[in-house]
Amino acid sequence: MIYDLPPELDRDRLAHTFDSAANAAAQHTLTRFRTELLVDNKFEIGFDPVTEADRAAEEAIRAVITAAFPDHSIIGEELEDKRTDSDFAWIIDPIDGTRAYISGVPVWGTLLGLMHKGRAIAGMMTQPYTGERWQAMGEETAFWWRDQKSRVITSTTTELGRAKATTTTPDMFTSAGLADAWSAISDRALQVRYGLDCYGYCLLASGHIDLVVETGLKDVDIAPLIPIIRGAGGVVTTWDGGDAEAGGNCIAAATPQLHAEAQRVLRDALGT
Amino acid sequence: MIYDLPPELDRDRLAHTFDSAANAAAQHTLTRFRTELLVDNKFEIGFDPVTEADRAAEEAIRAVITAAFPDHSIIGEELEDKRTDSDFAWIIDPIDGTRAYISGVPVWGTLLGLMHKGRAIAGMMTQPYTGERWQAMGEETAFWWRDQKSRVITSTTTELGRAKATTTTPDMFTSAGLADAWSAISDRALQVRYGLDCYGYCLLASGHIDLVVETGLKDVDIAPLIPIIRGAGGVVTTWDGGDAEAGGNCIAAATPQLHAEAQRVLRDALGT
């Protein structure tokens, strides 16, 4: 389902903001990609890399948004939220897939979404190393590769047994129940790929991946991708069929039929 | 260790063959990437995609080799081997990472290697969508991204606890013993990524990944990558320290120290 843009939102300004944000972020992300990185640890235990690139890119994107829409709220992965009275809130993940980023794998992306009264109504993902961009704003999803622009649509796959499925890592399923749920999906799917982060959802929008099943997502991880998936004809919800904007356990599918089958398989595996 | 090119081998002709093979293969692989694919099943059971692109690319590469070195042997993943009396044998994997390929993920690669008396002495990996190429021929490994050429070297990581490790999929470890061996590596590593196929070895050559541990490789999967890894300063052997040219269980590491530690951990886990 594609949500119309609210009439009070200036469409040209929105498009310009996405363009400027993509370019501003790339100045920090692409220039530092595959260089020696300053990697902080967010937590004392474990390994959750936050790079200088991450913070600098979010600052650059915030500056672009604030210039264009000074009254909108801004929610970002790295910096403190800016909360206003506006019905509009921007949601930023400057580098989704930081582990891919620090491993030199060009499947990370810069995510930027626009929420209106809690609904994700527009979204963008850019991958500056490959020169790719997926974008949706109240209509069908567009894809750019370097200078070539095209419309993308999801695949017609309706059965799990014929589906190419992905999840970022099987280690994401941290309890026995969740691991069983993922096994139920992966055992039935035609094939499984790991390691894609946001790129997996975008390949679903483009019709190359049929199903993404993940757990423990944050709002910034998924909200900007929702309009991209929906604008291409896909379905994205939480595992129990709720709105995915807040993150959590999420499922994205190429078709409603495949979405329903995957939901059933997860439900049976979880015994719910 | 870098092997010198045998003096009877024409270096310019070798370089030209790599260039021509990369271009010829891309005509078939890149043009069909992310399009509707003809996917055959090699086996009646399971899912081992072989695309038209795979076969057409191998034919194109064989034509380039045969024109330049008509007496050399040619071993390819898709077509029948050409065996001659020559000390030289070319080894081709037209699309390493066919599952990545059919999922639209640009981490597949075209692999071409040259063997001399059973040793991998030169190798190339090309990824035409990203415009990347890694190449080694008797000296330090070179990397191209579009028009930029640079030398690559492996990281200085000597400890598993500080290593970024990868394997194509945890499903590769098909017995309980192999799965335990991989767990012993992944539990100790700083971070783990999946889904990279040949691209993981090339990122190791470039210093972004520190360790690759895989099982059940074919000769075509690994032989062309050996000169690339060694020419960047890395170490690649079988798990038990033997030559990796024939494939099997392989380990590639950024430094000899990391290689030795990973070997120890695998040996302990396997109880050998």
Q: Which features would summarize this protein structure in a list?
A:
homodimer; 272 residues; alpha+beta; seven-stranded mixed sheet; five-stranded mixed sheet; globular
Shape of chain A: globular
Side-by-side strand order of the widest sheet of chain A: 3-4-5-6-7-8-9
Largest interface: A-B, 29 and 29 residues
| Quaternary form | homodimer
In terms of DSSP E residues, the strand content of chain A is 25-35%
Strand elements of chain A, count: 14
What gyration radius of chain A follows from the Cα positions, in whole Å?
18 Å
- Give the topology string of chain A: H per helix, E per strand: HEEHEEHEEEEEEHEHEHHEEH
Structural class of chain A: alpha+beta
Can you tell me about this structure?
The structure is a homodimer of 272-residue chains. Chain A has 272 residues and is an alpha+beta fold. Chain A is built from 8 helices and 14 strands. Chain A has helices at residues 11-32, 52-68, 98-102, 176-188, 198-205, 219-222, 226-231, 256-270, and strands at 39-41, 49-51, 73-76, 88-96, 109-116, 119-127, 132-137, 142-145, 148-151, 164-167, 191-194, 211-217, 235-238, 248-253. Chain A has a 7-stranded mixed β-sheet, with helices on both faces. In chain A, strands 11-10-12-14-13 form a 5-stranded mixed β-sheet, sandwiched between helices. In chain A, α4 links the parallel β10 and β11. The longest helix of chain A is centred in the N-terminal third of the chain and has 22 residues, at 11-32. Chain A starts with 10 loop residues before the first helix and ends with a helix. The model of chain A is unreliable at 38-49 (pLDDT under 50). Chains A and B meet through α3 and β11 of A and α3 and β11 of B.
